[in-house]
Write a structure and sequence with these properties.
cell projection; about 55% helix; repeat; mainly alpha; about 500 residues; Leu-rich_rpt; 9-stranded mixed β-sheet
Length: about 500
């Protein structure tokens, strides 16, 4: 038994779930109607000065609308129409293209999502380069003769049945005509209008009604610059055997087909399949794989050789640096020793002029100390040469002094008296001679010889300590770099 409390609706009370569901639907529809009315009122109040309904319905593109648009979107447009290069008039509900003659420098027009059924009103826009008219009601491609600079034309989602009117578009590169009615009534003849524009490189005719499988030979092979083709969604793609491989092998300029690009390997495999079927394609794949492996190992060997050469050059550079440091240290040491000897030699010559007996015991310890220090051969040769010169000078002065003594004593033998020529005494006594001799010996042992021997020894020790420190630092740096290079090479081998 059912009762009808609401006679207009006639709901059964025995099923309350249906009652609640019906109320929910009524409330949802009522809310949608309110929202639609509010949006319509807002748009109407906002565009009172812009909208003028035509007799056929829709909004008219008037000059007042354009002025108000420029005033509203002042960040996008100039108030002077001739300065604007872009116009955004999409999804406005216009039913006609008009009042665009003043935009002489217009280069891009967005007019999609309107109710236009005819291409018109663009005769003065000769600089137009991009025209977007998708999602309209256009049935025929016409009035495009003046758009000689047009490069991109989008007429998707319209009612076009035949491609025509492209003969004057010598700069057109991209044409989009997906989801139209091409091929539904005229077959392949509906697309032959593309041959009028040989500059086309990208064409989209997907989701149409083209069924003729001869489209490859009748159309695409006759277009010299074609690089991108979208024709999925047409019945002809299912009729052509081995569709993708056939197109790639037959069109050398093709770079993109339907849903993915055409790579170099894809072209090699397609051409091999076209030559000998699956067996030839399998051999071509093996050949390509081997070429890639050879190229990979060639790069790996070149990288390994580069690392080896770099390490060898580094080692040679470090050895040259060490040799340069060693030679520089020896040269500095030799120059320091020579300078010290030259500074001390005059004083030593003056104080070693007396007798030979006094000088001989002093020279022996010096020679022994030089042997103990084990100086380099160059320094030893310099010291020997200086010693020889000193001895020669000393002997010459002694001989001259003896000759003068003999001449003064009347050629009588006189005892050897080691005395200084600068002495003012008339004749020395034995005590004075003995005292002077002891004074010379002590002065030579305490002052002269340690200075001549100690200074080079200290400098040599300091240079040797510096060289040892530098060698330790170089070895530590070299070991750290070698560890880093070995780690990097290990990482590269793992990646390979």
């Amino acid at each position: 038994m059912t009762q009808n409390n609401n006679k207009g609706i006639g709901l059964p009370l025995g099923n309350p779930l249906q009652y609640y569901f019906f109320n929910y639907i009524i409330k949802f529809k009522f809310q949608n109607i309110q929202m639609a009315n509010s949006s319509t009122q807002c748009s109407t109040s906002h565009n009172d000065s812009m909208d003028t309904d035509s007799s056929s319905g829709g909004r008219t593109l008037s000059l007042q609308y354009l002025k108000d648009l420029f005033k509203k979107d002042w960040k996008l447009y100039y108030r002077t129409p001739e300065l604007n290069e872009k116009l955004y008039l999409h999804y406005k509900g216009f039913n006609r293209i008009q009042n665009l003659e003043q935009f002489t420098d217009l280069k891009c027009l967005y007019f999609e999502g309107n109710g236009v059924n005819k291409i018109e009103g663009l005769e003065e826009n000769t600089k137009l380069m991009s025209l977007y008219l998708q999602e309209n009601l256009i049935e025929k491609m016409e009035s495009l003769d003046t758009l000689v600079n047009l490069r991109q034309l989008n007429l998707s989602d319209n009612l076009i049945q035949c491609i025509a009117g492209l003969g004057s578009l010598r700069s057109l590169e991209t044409l989009q005509l997906k989801r139209n009615r091409i091929g539904k009534f005229g077959g392949i003849s509906d697309v032959l209008g593309l041959l009028e524009c040989p500059s086309l490189t990208c064409i989209d005719i997907s989701d149409n009604y083209i069924e003729d499988e001869n489209i490859l030979t009748e159309l695409w092979q006759k277009m010299p610059s074609i690089a991108v083709i979208y024709q999925q969604g047409n019945p002809c793609t299912k009729k052509i055997k081995n569709y993708r491989k056939t197109f790639i092998a037959s069109l050398p300029t093709l770079k993109y087909l339907d849903d993915r690009p055409v790579f170099e390997d894809d072209r090699k495999f397609a051409e091999a399949f076209n030559r000998g079927g699956f067996d030839e394609e399998r051999r071509e794949r093996e050949r390509v794989r081997k070429e890639k492996e050879d190229a990979h190992w060639k790069n790996h060997e070149a990288f390994t050789e580069m690392i080896r050469v770099a390490r060898e050059e580094k080692r040679q550079a470090e050895e040259a640096k060490k040799a340069a440091v060693a030679s520089g240290a020896l040269a500095i040491e030799a120059e320091a020793d020579t300078a010290a000897v030259q500074e001390i030699a005059p004083a030593v010559v003056q104080e070693r002029e007396p007798a030979e007996e006094i000088a001989e015991p002093v020279s022996q310890p010096a020679q022994e100390s030089e042997d103990d220090e084990q100086e380099p051969p160059e320094l030893e040769q310099v010291d020997l040469e200086n010693e020889r010169l000193l001895q020669q000078t000393k002997q010459q002065k002694q001989q001259e002094w003896l000759e003068s003594v003999k001449a003064a004593s009347g050629n009588e033998p006189a005892p050897f008296i080691p005395w200084d020529d600068e002495c003012d005494l008339p004749k020395p006594d034995e005590e004075a001679v003995k005292k002077r001799t002891e004074q010379l010996i002590s002065q030579q042992q305490v002052e002269e010889e340690p200075i001549v021997q100690a200074e080079p020894a200290e400098e040599v020790a300091e240079v040797e300590a510096t060289e040892e420190k530098e060698n330790d630092q170089n070895e530590e740096h070299e070991s750290a770099q070698e560890e880093e290079e070995e780690q990097e090479y290990t990482n590269l081998e793992e990646l390979d």
